[in-house]
Amino acid sequence: MRIGTGLPNQVRDVRPAVLPAWARQAEDAGFTSLATVGRYAYPGVSDTVALAAAAAVTSRIELISGVLLGPTWPGSLLAKELAGIDGVSNGRLTVGLGVGGRPDDFVAEGYGTAGRGKRFDRDLAHFHEVWDGEPVGGGTNPAVPAGTRRPPMLFGGAAPAALDRMARWSEGYIGASVPAPMVAPTFDAARDAWSRAGRDGSPRLVALVYYALGDGEQGRKNVHDYYSAYGDFADLVASAVCDTPEKLREAITSFEDIGADDLIFNTGTDDVDDIKRLADIVL
Q: What CA–CA distance (Å, rounded) separates 164 from 197?
């Protein structure tokens, strides 16, 4: 199982200038991937900005949006943004996507929650047209440079439509930030959707868990704040924050046991020293 870590882009009032240093240290420490957390009606840094900053200062680590809210964007603009990040990183971007559920995250006029699933399905097909260099805007120019690749995609969400979308368009599935026994049924559902779609092999299965080692109490508060719109779910995610070496090792074992291919430790604080603390325990 590969071990990744997260950028603090959605820690409340994150210091944006810490993101490049965080990315460099994560790569130097030997993590296999570096992920963002995504929403818009929150005082953090957008996935695309955080990933672009990370792409510019790293050269090896995989970059993952885990997950970016696709239907909050006009499809052509998001496709161009993602292609640019992938190009700057020299092909290291994996696009994790979800439909979103909090109405306040849909901040662009005309891109609300109504019809977001159908809009998303339409945009996914359009992403490939943009990445393949087809003209945009009714003219003759493509939106991306020649040679642009289609970045691999992952999908989150447990609804049947989300799983079917995952099996049709992506390389795999991203689970919710909850303990492994709660993730296991969604991993099984992702495998089943993959098989029903006639896909060969198995989907890539990515698990997420929060950690905070320098200040566990603050990490739990930050995580709870981020998910506070979801009531009891916020209590669940905050209570699962790993704040000791024992909890980190237990998380690794539990997610290995359910067949995760990747485990990404997302941070509950923007304390850059937590990267070394984490690496010393899990790598």
A: 8
